[in-house]
Design brief:
The protein is of the alpha+beta class and 496 residues long. The chain is built from 18 helices and 22 strands. The N and C termini lie far apart (84 Å).
Length: 496
């Protein structure tokens, strides 16, 4: 190898240099300037707000507030004054904002946000506006969301207004019972009830809310009823409610414009062949917000054994997450939702058949075992919820398939027997359709089944329906509303 010369390795000399940025300097400088303010040293302006005299430095105020920057750098008289009077602003709010300008610290709370946000808007301090709006978002409740909405609208806080609107739509069933709702001006009431996203179980709730609002001050508000009723989707009401409740209301009967709206709805319901020609805002179904809906996978069988674990899927985030496990391992368990609580009925724990029930509260992420057991052990059971009752249908008890059915009343915590099915079934599909329970397919003690039957709670009877073309065990059932352009409008289908 050739000889390596030292000159090949030497770097040209560079001037000595150290670049340094202090992390402490901004904070220390701000603290020093704030100390000058407190001692009234080098202050070049006094703000007079109400009864308060606030000493400050123009450069600090101008740096933190476009309002003050325009005042002190332009041709306004205040730019030359040592004392400046600020009107239309709360003195306590002004002190908080000046403190923030010197300290970068502020506390927003219930007793100051209503004066702090308007003051921040006036001084154009966008950061404080955002903090106030964030605080109010966290305070949203059915009892105050309308007041917060109006407050946001007054002060042009568009994001807070949007969030408050969404909250009101999603929680309308609780909002309509609040004092704030009854105090709404007519234009805001119309804004709310005309929204397609209003989250209601039926249009009956919207009608009842409107009538409560009118009757809260009937002398002043009855004149607005025709205008407001235009935004209630009367054609979407049930015929019974439309005729028996709406049509018989004295306020509506006494007003010609209201009667015309009722007649329009009657024609829509009575003349289905004419409906394509009658489409409009009042016939358009609402699209309620469903942010809170999730899918649960409960128990089951894994690696040769029953499991107690539970997972929940959130379609908004496209994620599965673990929920609290049940107290018992359960496969072949029946699950259903009643009164916003998830019930796990029976099943098999890998060794024995179960008649115990567990109930899950998604608000607390806890299972409770204080639900009365079924009269018999059941696995591979069908469950359904109808008219406030939980039904356990068929299944097997370890000896044979079952045809008997019982229902649970959460008000009394008791199970009671109802009519038995005509056929013993396990691994059946259960679904609700037109206020009846359908039991589809499954297996008896010897073979898979193609038969199906339905239960009418009004008569306490099961009746067979036409059999499927194929035998099916381990089948699932669902009620599906189809509203496609080429199919009959709002027709419901039972899917198995």
């Amino acid at each position: 190898m050739g000889e390596i010369l030292h000159s090949d390795l030497e770097c040209p000399p560079s001037p000595a240099r150290l670049e340094y940025t202090s992390d402490k300097h901004p904070r220390h400088t701000l603290e020093a300037i704030n100390l000058l303010r407190k001692h009234r040293e080098l202050c070049d302006v006094v703000l007079i707000v109400g009864t308060r005299r606030i000493f400050a430095h123009r450069v600090i105020l101008s740096a933190c507030s476009p309002y003050f920057h325009a005042m002190f750098t332009g041709e306004l008289a205040e730019s030359r004054q040592t004392e400046v009077t600020i009107r239309d602003i709360d003195e306590h709010a002004m002190e908080l904002l000046i403190d923030f300008a010197y300290t970068s610290h502020i506390i927003v709370e219930e007793n100051n946000v209503q004066v702090l946000l308007p003051a921040a808007c006036l001084l154009q301090m966008a950061e404080i506006q955002e903090v106030c709006c964030e605080f109010l978002k966290r305070q949203l409740d059915p009892s105050n969301c309308l007041g917060i909405r109006a407050f946001a609208d007054t002060h042009s806080c568009r994001e807070l207004l949007r969030i408050a609107d969404k909250f009101t739509q999603h929680n309308f069933q609780e909002v309509m019972e609040s004092e704030e709702f009854l105090l709404l001006p007519v234009n805001q009431l119309i804004d709310i009830i005309s929204n397609d996203e209003l989250n209601v179980r039926s249009e009956e709730q919207v009608f009842n809310a409107v009538m409560s609002w009118v009757k809260y001050n009937i002398t002043e508000r009855r004149q607005h009823l025709p205008q407001v009723l235009q935004h209630v989707r009367l054609p979407l009401l049930s015929p019974k409610f439309l005729v028996g409740t709406v049509g018989s209301d004295l306020l509506i009967k006494s007003d010609e414009a209201c009667r015309d709206l009722v007649d329009e709805a009657k024609n829509y319901l009575l003349l289905p062949q004419e409906r394509p020609l009658m489409q409009g805002p009042r016939t358009r179904p609402r699209k309620p917000v469903r942010r809170g809906e999730v899918l649960f996978a409960v128990g089951g069988w894994c690696s040769g054994d029953a499991i107690a674990s539970v997972e929940r899927y959130d379609p908004q985030t496209n994620e599965w997450r673990m929920a609290a496990p049940m107290s018992k391992r359960r496969c072949g368990v029946g699950v259903a939702v009643l009164n916003d609580l998830l019930y796990a009925v029976g099943g098999h724990d890998g060794q024995s058949y179960l008649n115990s029930i567990e109930r899950y509260d998604p608000q607390t992420n806890q299972w409770s075992c204080d639900v009365a057991p079924t009269s018999s052990c059941r696995t591979s059971v069908g469950v359904a919820v109808l008219d406030g009752y939980l039904y356990a249908v068929g299944g097997q008890d370890g000896v044979s398939c079952l045809n008997f059915v019982e229902r649970f009343d959460p008000r009394t915590n008791r199970w009671s027997s109802v009519a038995s099915m005509g056929t013993r079934r396990k691994h059946l599909g259960c679904a609700i359709y037109n206020n009846m329970i359908y039991a589809v397919g499954g297996r008896d003690d010897t073979t898979e089944l193609s038969s199906a039957e339905r239960y009418n709670p009004q008569t306490n009877q099961w009746q067979p329906i036409v059999a499927m073309t194929s035998r099916r065990s381990g089948v699932s059932g669902a009620n599906f509303s189809l509203n496609a352009a080429l199919l009959p409008r709002n027709r419901k289908y039972l899917i198995v």
